[in-house]
Write a structure and sequence with these properties.
Elements (H helix, E strand, L loop, with lengths): L2 H24 L10 H8 L3 H13 L4 H8 L4 H23 L8 H29 L4 H27 L3 H19 L12 H31 L4 H16 L3 H23 L2 H5 L5 H22 L13 H5 L2 H22 L1 H7 L6 H29 L4 H20 L4 H28 L4 H8 L2 H21 L1 E2 L5 E2 L7 H24 L1 H22 L1
Antiparallel strand pairs: 1-2
Helix pairs in contact: 1-6, 1-7, 1-8, 1-11, 3-6, 3-21, 4-6, 4-20, 5-6, 5-8, 6-7, 6-20, 7-8, 7-9, 7-10, 7-17, 7-19, 9-10, 9-17, 15-19, 15-21, 15-22, 17-19, 17-23, 18-19, 18-22
Subcellular location: Membrane
Keywords: Membrane, Signal, Transmembrane, Transmembrane helix
Pfam family, one: Nodulin-like
């Protein structure tokens, strides 16, 4: 691969990353249940336990993400995206028909199926995006995970604020958005998102760092813009329309990166063509390939010799940090420590997110859209900051990534206890803390899994870890929150129930805070067990930096 082809591939890689960002921007629809859960509860006359189990059915869809994980090693990325797009259209489309009263409320079991379809659709989208981008940017897994997962966190706020601005929080129109917009965005991403041969040169690594900094800046601007709109609370129609237009422009602005990369590659093509016309003899005299090509040939040869050596040596059980099959990973203590700590983090977060509408009503807030947006926006900050910061400290000092998960668990416990006390303003602070810590957990666990168990079977490994979302939702939201809420609630005429006061969720928050402390202990244990791995990663990157410095002198 010559320099010209390298720059062309780089431009297509960045265009694929922009399309991946757009897919993640619309794939947080699973976290928007609180925006329309009250409408479903009223139309179907459900108790809180029944409503929570409906949200569990939505999260159970993620359990079938194992299919997406298996398919990621066998089907091309466009096919995986198409499957997710169609599932989302059907799942959320059926819910819209019910909420808009175009049809009579469906039987409970049928609603569970359509909830499950909607939930499963995002696993196909996330698998396609994460697996492809992590493989395209192997040396910047932290920033990739932080940015992509950050936009998932913003997704809820984007959908909520657009619906509030354009449709006055109409739940039926909100579900139309959830059905149509992800379908359209995935069709666009199908054209551009695919695995691209990558360069391992120092120059390419520095270029990636610069471009990721731009993506981070744009993402922060979008988050601050959404937060500003939430705090203004304006209901003016013209203001709302202007807000929506500017938001769409901001979401489109990352296109500047691949456009610049394409222009740069075209300029290089013209320059090379001009040089060939002026100095035709150079082609005959120059027999050695470009330095970048030499580097790639050397790496391919080394990889081939390594493969031959592997055949000759008797296969041994891989150690942490090497490529693992799924069964090999599941036979290690480290996998289960990561799995259970992940459950403690995302299970408690999902319970708060799924029950936000009822938590807000219990604590005296009739409109909970601000809390949903705060959870989403600060979830974004947690994801994008933890991705970049964990990468920085890994490169600077070899700091194990699980330590950042441990820090988030302590903060999560504090936020949950604060909401249990039901002090004035506690839901504002609690929404911010829970959103941020939930975001850190999702963003940091993605690169941790790839660093401990490799990238070869990463699609399936990621979806096995994501099983914690439906498991955690069932345990903490469906069982814990559902049963304890119904025990305190008062029946309402026509079916259903309601509860107002700090006692409705007080015990739920305390138990979840204890679970967060268990997760903290497991994360510290994992950081200790994997310290040698992160030291090796840190040391492996030092020689390249030293070599680059010496070449520059």
């Amino acid at each position: 691969m010559g320099i010209r082809e390298s720059h062309t591939f780089s431009a297509w890689k960045w265009l694929g990353f922009v399309s991946a960002v757009w897919v993640q921007t619309i794939s947080g629809n699973n976290y928007t249940f609180s925006n329309y859960s009250d409408a479903i509860k009223t139309l179907m006359n459900l108790t809180q336990l029944q409503l929570n189990n409906l949200s569990v059915a939505k999260d159970v869809g993620k359990a079938f993400g194992l299919l997406a994980g298996l398919a990621s090693d066998r089907l091309p990325t466009p096919v995986i995206l198409l499957i997710g797009a169609i599932e989302g259209l059907i799942g959320y489309g059926a819910q819209w028909l019910v909420v808009s009263q175009k049809i009579q409320p469906l039987p409970y079991w049928q609603m569970c199926i359509f909830m499950c379809l909607g939930g499963n659709s995002t696993t196909w989208m996330n698998t396609a995006v994460l697996v492809t981008c992590i493989r395209n940017f192997r040396r910047n897994r932290g920033p990739v995970s932080g940015i992509l997962k950050g936009y998932v966190g913003l997704s809820t706020a984007i959908f909520t604020d657009l619906c509030s601005a354009l449709f006055s929080d109409d739940p039926a129109r909100f579900l139309v958005m959830l059905a149509i917009i992800p379908f359209a965005v995935c069709l666009v991403a199908i054209l551009f998102l695919r695995e691209i041969p990558q360069s391992t040169s120092v120059a390419a690594e520095k270029e990636e760092a610069r471009y990721f900094a731009i993506f981070n800046i744009v993402a922060v601007v979008v988050a601050v813009y959404l937060l500003t709109y939430d705090l203004t609370g304006s209901t003016n129609q013209v203001f709302s329309l202007v807000f929506a237009v500017i938001l769409l422009i901001l979401l489109a602005s990352p296109l500047a990166v691949p456009i610049y990369a394409f222009v740069k590659s075209w300029r290089l093509v013209w320059f090379e063509a001009d040089m060939e016309r002026q100095q035709p003899l150079l082609k005959e005299e120059t027999t050695s390939p470009p330095a970048e090509t030499k580097e790639i040939i050397t790496e391919v040869a080394a990889a081939a010799s390594a493969d031959d050596a592997t055949v000759l040596v008797e296969k041994t059980k891989p150690v942490i940090g090497e490529e693992h099959t799924i069964m090999e990973a599941m036979q290690t203590w480290d996998f289960w420590v990561l799995f259970i700590s992940f459950l403690c983090g995302v299970g408690t977060g999902m319970a708060v997110i799924n029950n936000m509408a009822q938590i807000g009503l219990a604590l005296g807030h009739a409109d909970v859209s601000i809390f949903i947006s705060l959870t989403s926006i600060w979830g974004f900050f947690g994801r994008i900051i933890s991705g970049s910061v964990s990468e920085y400290f890994l490169k600077k000092a070899g700091t194990p990534r699980p330590l950042w998960n441990a820090a988030s668990q302590i903060l999560m416990a504090v936020g949950l206890l604060l909401m249990a006390l039901a002090l004035p303003g506690c839901l504002y602070i609690g929404s911010i803390v829970v959103g941020m810590c939930y975001g850190v957990r999702l963003a940091v666990t993605v690169p941790v899994a790839s660093e401990l168990f490799g990238l070869k079977y990463y699609g399936l490994l990621y979806n096995i870890l994501i099983l914690n979302l439906p498991i955690g939702s069932f345990l903490f939201s469906g069982l814990l929150a559902g049963y304890l809420y119904d025990a305190q609630a008062t029946p309402t005429p026509g079916g259903g129930n309601t509860c107002v006061g700090a006692h409705c969720y007080g015990l739920v928050f305390i138990i979840m805070a204890m679970a967060s402390l268990i997760g903290f202990g497991l994360d510290v244990l994992l950081a200790i067990r994997t310290k040698n791995i992160y030291t090796k990663i840190f040391n492996s990157r030092k020689p390249k930096k030293s070599l680059a410095a010496s070449n520059g002198q």
